[in-house]
Amino acid sequence: MSAELMNGTELAREIVDRSAERARILVAETGVRPCLATVIVGDDPASVTYVAMKRRRCAKAGIESRLVSLPEATTTAELVAVIRGLSDDPSVHGILLQHPVPGHIDERAAFEAIAPAKDVDGVTMWSFAAMAFGQADGFVSCTPGGIMRLLDAYGVDPAGKRAVVVGRSPILGKPMGMLLLARDATVTYCHSRTVDLSAEIAGADILVAAVGRPEFIKGADIKPGAVVIDAGYNPGNVGDVDAEGARERAGLLTPVPGGVGPMTIALLLEQTVVAAERSAQR
To answer: Coiled-coil ranges per the record (predicted)?
Structure first.
């Protein structure tokens, strides 16, 4: 068996193109141009590179990109004040706090300063509740939301399937499980304290790896024909799944890079346009 690769790059391009057209129409009809404000604290090289890429993608989608760079020594209170200011600014439609922030900052407090209507990255507790309860007026976490769009594009219906999510972060693993549960999958969360992880993985019809450890999921553990979503990205373009082993067992597999990553950015841009449309309607 040789797994079919799920092309996130191509699907993301289609989403961004549609978002750009919606942004163009919004500007023509209302004069409102979608605006995404990105806040970055410190000068972590990977974060700086990632933010620069997002700004280029914003330009392609007709979205104004506003960058707020704060020094490494910024306190939680100072960061919260900046984010609240952006939340109160009617010209800003979406707010992204680049992760990770320096260790001395209370990241959760910073996330919660984002107004729900501008939480286009889906990181607040309000957005998580909206995902869990299926509220259409909330925004999904971008990586899990992008994964769901990939599953749809490749004809994968989660209903009745056993889905295993390896990882329980509040902005990836946990919301991923909620979105799969909402589509009638039977969801199991696994983590560092899971007993016999290999057995849990072996039973998964849909496997989502989100642990941040290179090649942590071994190909030999994967159920033949399973859908394998590698949401990890580690130095050297290595995911959380043993790609070579997975290709021999999985039915569908997301490559790294070119799978989940482009979808995350595409969802961020799409949700920024949606936030601007809602703002114009209000």
So the answer is: none
Q: Annotated catalytic, 118? A: no
CA distance 226 to 158: 12
3-state secondary structure of 73: coil
Is 168 marked within a binding site?
yes
Give, for all 282 residues of the chain, the pLDDT tens digit.
Answer: 699 999 999 999 999 999 999 999 999 999 999 999 999 999 988 888 889 999 999 999 999 999 999 999 999 999 999 999 999 999 999 999 999 999 999 999 999 999 999 999 999 999 999 999 988 889 999 999 999 999 999 999 999 999 999 999 999 999 999 999 999 999 999 998 999 999 999 999 999 999 999 999 999 999 999 999 999 989 899 999 999 999 999 999 999 999 999 999 999 999 999 999 999 998
CATH tag, 30-116 = 3.40.50.10860
- Whether 167 has a binding-site annotation, put simply, is yes
Taking the C-alpha atoms of residue 263 and residue 57, their distance in angstroms, rounded to an integer, is 12
Residue in 44, 88, 89, 98 annotated catalytic: 98
Taking domain 142-260, whether its CATH number is 3.40.50.720 is answered by: yes
Q: C-alpha 95: how far from its chain's center?
A: 14
